[in-house]
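Morning. Coffee machine broken again, so started the prediction first thing and wrote up yesterday's gels while waiting. Chain of 272 residues, entered below exactly as on the submission form.
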Amino acid sequence: MTPIVNVSNLDKYFGRLQVLNSISLEIQPREVVCLIGRSGSGKSTLLRCINFLEEPSHGSIEVDGIKVAGGEKGKEHRQLVHEVRLKTGMVFQEFNLFPHMSVLENVIEGPVTVKKMDKARAIQLAEMNLDRVGLLFKKDEYPNRLSGGQKQRVAIARALAMEPKVMLFDEPTSALDPELIGEVLSVMKNVAKEGMTMLVVTHEMGFAREVADRVIVMAEGSIIEQAAPDEIFRSPKDARTKALIDRYRAADEGGRTPEQPQQKQPRLYTLE
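Came back before lunch.
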């Protein structure tokens, strides 16, 4: 099977600091891949390079047959980047909804502005995707009247409305209160069941174990291990992976992610 995403020998520098070191990665159509690792390991930078929110320094990225070399410039390069972005939906940590637009207006903005879609068709598509995430009844509300979980579900609907071939999730629950995490993970689980190819940077180990086809572990800008979730969590081969998983387990028992201080609330891995 031809990979839908092919990252080859990818390097990324910020000045003299190398944050990605010769990353090579293939993702198959309909595959769900979770990226885990300590903060600063390069997970989010890799995700942002795949849709060129960060320009790779070297190497190449191919998405659904569109191949783009990193570090180049010019009109042809910009056009290829545009084509890759049309094929990749991105969901961020902080929602990034337009506060002056209603939920419906937020979701139709991309299809109308970027894809030049007829507005009536864009509205139909937006309403379908808001229904997918359980928020069609909120279509006329503004973001300041939504909970954090609802905002993130609108952000997912907005990305889906662009009809991408691949969905990229950059720690989509990290900005949420613990009691709101489950509703977002549930939507993501349903999107995966529908056959969407997904690359997810996450600290939610319950989600990774249940939904991922493959877990990739990163450290210091490199992929150090990748395997099926059961293999990663039960018998990690790299000592750094074992230390990471032990850290997640300790954090889960304390009701927090590894990056958070002690909390009393339990973590929510509910995916029904």
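Residues 178-193 form the longest helix (16 residues). Going to sketch it on the whiteboard this afternoon.
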